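Hi V.,

You were right to ask for the full record rather than a summary. Here it is.
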Amino acid sequence: MRKRRQRRFTKRLEAKFSSGGMSFVGMSSNMSEDGLFIRTRNSFIPETVIDIELFMPDGKKSFLRGKVKRSIRKQIPISKNGMGVELIEKDAAYINFLASLTGENF
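Predicted structure:
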């Protein structure tokens, strides 16, 4: 049984994210219509609402809002530290970027 509802795409985009006056940077490692995973050593705890700024390949920025669903923090540097985020707000830049990857409309 598949756990995820939407197809995921592996894309490495710089991401800035913030909540409660704290800001950090990371890198997207995969994304879908409803969420993304941000690789970072500075994760927020689950259920935290965060603002995300993604730097698109064409130089544009996408502004998103999401809720942290899981956070992975391990001491091993090569492990995939970061957080899974469910998107609660997304902009046209993000939607258009996903559409460019699939040729589909979202």
